[in-house]
Specification:
heterodimer; A: mainly alpha; 21 helices
C-alpha cells in the first residue's frame, strides 16, 4: 500500500517537473520571440535612415565615414553592420570599395582579425566572413593556418578568392584539396573550387595526380567540378581521367565518365578510352553515364554503339536511360533507323507507365513491357 | 522631364538600394518584387516607363522569361535591362540589355541613361 502511494507520488512529482520545465521553455521561447519582434520593429526605421545616408554619402567624393560612424550609437552601429552584411555581397566596383571603407570605419576588420584564432568555430567563421567581405589584408601564413573544419577551409578559400580572384587558383585549389588531408569538401567549398577553376581548370587537372590519396567523395566532387569547368588541355585531362575510369569505386568511375563530357566534341575519346569496357561495366551508374556520353557525341558510330548497347542492356532502368538518350537524339532528326524505332516505341510506353505511377526501379521493372526482340 | 524606371527585383535589400541610388540620380522609380507584379504594373500604368530594370533571379517566373514577355508585348516601345551573372549576360533568347551582377551601383544610373 505504502509502495503504491510512493510510486504515485513519484509520478506526480515527475509530471509537475515536466510541466514546470515546459512552462519555463515556453516562457523563454515566447520572451525571445517578443524581444526579437520589438528589436526588429525598432530597427526598421533606423535601417531605412542608415540606408538612405549610405546611398547619399557613397556618392560623395569623400563620404567621411569615420566622422559619421563616430556619431552613431551602439544600436545604430549594430544595425549598420547587419546592413553591410546584406549589401556588400550584392554590389561591386567603386560602390563596394566605399562600403568596405565604411566597414573599416566601423572597426569590423580589426574585430575580425582579433577573432581569427578564437576557440569558437562559429566566431572564427564569422571573422573569415568579414575578412572576405571587407577584403581585409591578412597574412597568408596566418590565414592558411587557420582552417580547421571543413567549413572553415571553404571560408579561408573564399577569402583567397575575394582577394586575388582566379590569380589564386593554384594556391586556393591546392589548399582546398590538401588542407583537409583528402577529406571531402563542403558544398560551399565545391562552389569556391569551381570559381577558382571555371575558366582555366589547369590547377584542378594537375591536382588530380593525387586522387588516390583522397577520400572517395572528394574525388567525385573534383570530377564533378572538372566537368562543369571550361575545357582544359584534352590530352592532360584524359591522361588523368583514365586511371579514375579503372577505380574500384563505381561512383568514381561514373564521375570520370561524366567528366569527359566537355571533351567529346574536341577529341575522339574512343581513341583514348576503351568504350566497350565501360559499356560492360558491372555498375548501372557507370553504364548510365556512358549512354549519356554516347548520346552527346554527334557521331553516327557513337549513336550506333548506344543503340546496340541500350537495346541489349540487362537492367531495365539503365535500358530506359539508354533508350531515352536515343529518343532525345532522334527527336530532332528527320529519319529514325527502322531497327531503332521499336525501341523508341517501347521507351514511350515505359515512360507513360513511369509518369502514371512512380515507383522504385524493381517494382517498375515488373510492370514494364518487355523490350522488343533484337533482330539479326 | 524625369525619366521613369520600373525596377523588378526580388531581393528586398537590393531593391531598396537600387531604388535609392536611381532616385539619387533623379529617376522616378516604381518597384515590383516579382514578374507578375511587373506585368500588372505595366498594364495598369497610364504610360510606359522609360526603362524596366529586371533582376534575372526572381521568385516564381525568372527575369529572362519576364523580359521575353515584355519584348513580345511592347517590342521597341520599352527598354528592358536585365541584371545577370557575367556568364549569363544576354542569356536565353531575350534581346534585353545585360547588366553584370553584382551590380556596380555607382555606374548604374549612367548605364540606365545610355539605354533609355
Amino acid at each position: 500500500m505504502i509502495q503504491v502511494a510512493t510510486q504515485s507520488g513519484l509520478l506526480i512529482a515527475a509530471a509537475v517537473a515536466v510541466a514546470a520545465g515546459l512552462l519555463v521553455v515556453g516562457s523563454l521561447t515566447l520572451g525571445g520571440v517578443i524581444y526579437h519582434f520589438i528589436r526588429h520593429r525598432h530597427s526598421q526605421p533606423i535601417q531605412a535612415d542608415l540606408r538612405r545616408e549610405i546611398v547619399k554619402r557613397v556618392n560623395w567624393n569623400d563620404p567621411e565615414w569615420q566622422s559619421w560612424v563616430d556619431d552613431l550609437d551602439r544600436f545604430e552601429r549594430r544595425v549598420l553592420r547587419r546592413l553591410l552584411d546584406r549589401q556588400l555581397p550584392k554590389v561591386s566596383g567603386t560602390y563596394r570599395d566605399s562600403l568596405q571603407s565604411l566597414g573599416v570605419a566601423l572597426g569590423l576588420d580589426e574585430w575580425a582579425m582579433g577573432r581569427l584564432n578564437s576557440k569558437n568555430e562559429l566566431t572564427r567563421l564569422d571573422a573569415l566572413h568579414w575578412i572576405a567581405l571587407l577584403n581585409a589584408p591578412v597574412d597568408d601564413k596566418r590565414l592558411l593556418g587557420s582552417g580547421g573544419s571543413v567549413r572553415e577551409r571553404a571560408a579561408v578559400a573564399r577569402v583567397l578568392y575575394e582577394r586575388d580572384g582566379v590569380e589564386a587558383a593554384r594556391t586556393g585549389t591546392a589548399y582546398l584539396l590538401t588542407a583537409g588531408d583528402g577529406q571531402s569538401l563542403s558544398g560551399y567549398g565545391v562552389h569556391i573550387l569551381y570559381r577558382f577553376n571555371k575558366e582555366n581548370p589547369t590547377a584542378l587537372i594537375e591536382a588530380l595526380d593525387d586522387w588516390e590519396r583522397w577520400d572517395r567523395t572528394l574525388v567525385v566532387q573534383v570530377l564533378a567540378v572538372l566537368r562543369a569547368c571550361d575545357p582544359g588541355p584534352p590530352d592532360a585531362v584524359i591522361r588523368r581521367l583514365r586511371p579514375c575510369l579503372d577505380a574500384d569505386a563505381a561512383a568514381i568511375r561514373a564521375a570520370a565518365v561524366q567528366a569527359l563530357e566537355p571533351y567529346t566534341d574536341v577529341v575522339d575519346v574512343g581513341e583514348h578510352v576503351e568504350v566497350a569496357d565501360l559499356i560492360s561495366d558491372p555498375s548501372t551508374r557507370v553504364r548510365s553515364a556512358v549512354y549519356h556520353q554516347l548520346s552527346t557525341v554527334d557521331d553516327p558510330a557513337a549513336i550506333e554503339t548506344l543503340a546496340n548497347s541500350a537495346i541489349d542492356e540487362e537492367d531495365a532502368v539503365v535500358r530506359y536511360v539508354g533508350t531515352s538518350e536515343l529518343a532525345e537524339y532522334f527527336q530532332h532528326r528527320k529519319e529514325t533507323p527502322e531497327a531503332v524505332r521499336p525501341h523508341l516505341d517501347w521507351f514511350e510506353q515505359t515512360g507513360d507507365c513511369w509518369q502514371l505511377d512512380w515507383r522504385s526501379s524493381w517494382e517498375l521493372d515488373s510492370e514494364m513491357t518487355e523490350p522488343p526482340e533484337v533482330e539479326g | 522631364m524625369t525619366d521613369e524606371v520600373l525596377l523588378v527585383v526580388g531581393d528586398t535589400e537590393l531593391r531598396k538600394l537600387i531604388r535609392l541610388q536611381l532616385e539619387h540620380a533623379e529617376y522616378n522609380v516604381t518597384t515590383a518584387e516579382n514578374g507578375e507584379r511587373c506585368l500588372s504594373a505595366l498594364s495598369e500604368a497610364n504610360s510606359l516607363p522609360n526603362a524596366v530594370l529586371i533582376d534575372e533571379v526572381l521568385p516564381r517566373k525568372d527575369g529572362v522569361s519576364i523580359a521575353q514577355v515584355l519584348e513580345d508585348q511592347y517590342g521597341d516601345e520599352l527598354s528592358v535591362l536585365i541584371m545577370c551573372l557575367p556568364d549569363e549576360t544576354r542569356s536565353g533568347d531575350s534581346t534585353a540589355i545585360g547588366i553584370e551582377k553584382p551590380v556596380d551601383l555607382a555606374r548604374l544610373p549612367n548605364r540606365v541613361e545610355r539605354e533609355v
